[in-house]
Write a structure and sequence with these properties.
Layout: H1 3-16, H2 19-23, E1 27-28, E2 53-58, H3 68-77, E3 92-98, E4 105-111, H4 119-123, E5 129-131, E6 137-139, H5 149-153, E7 160-161, E8 176-177, E9 180-181, H6 187-190, H7 197-204, E10 210-214, H8 221-228, E11 244-247
Parallel strand pairs: 2-11
Antiparallel strand pairs: 1-8, 2-10, 3-4, 5-6, 7-9
Helix pairs in contact: 3-7
Length: 249
Amino acid sequence: MSDQTSKVNEYRRKFFGKAAATAAMVGIAPGVFLHTIARAKPADEAVSSEVRWGLLINANKCADGCNDCVSACNDENGLTGFGRPETDAQWIRKVTLKDKRTNHVTNLPLMCQHCAHPPCVDVCPTGASFKRADGIVLVDKHICIGCRYCMMACPYKARSFVHETLTDQVPDVPRGKGTVESCTLCVHRVDRGDTPACVEACNTAENGAMVFGNLNDPNSDISKRLASEASTEIRGDLGLDLGVRYQNI
């Protein structure tokens, strides 16, 4: 066992027993009760590892200047900005890649990659960062202590820290000051049979850059595309087995 792993386990033991007391100190917005965060699906509809949700994003179809996916994410999850881009929550963002040799520019949306082996989960001292059986990586606001280890561990800078007291939240997406958060693949929508808001917005705009589906189902559209078309993982060298794959980058 490595020294780093030993330290992580030590932190887990130290903090997990104090998790309930710590959660009581986390600032949750007025009117939002902690028990609403506990389960995304009813008890009789438990998630299963037979399903693994994922995204396939075609950068060639991601229009320059289009931010529909970002706007849809913000609206769906109640991510109101406070005029400070360096600290405002950003669950999905558009990034620009430029080939220095050819000057070719590619635009693509970047969010939590929903790793099969998520570093954020490995370093979390309380177990607040966790991966569901269906591959969706989430943060349990009950026991997040705001240490931000997960933010440092994420290779994709996909997590945000809530600095401000929040009001007028979306009932399906409770958030809390002093906690870490990131893209949930719109888990509340997925659990009722819908697609994530970003995918819906991309399809509404007729860009068709984003495909969502079950990676474990060989008959799903996303699996057929992955089997017949080239795709890649961002920082695939890390061996994290990402739930988000890209084409034409």
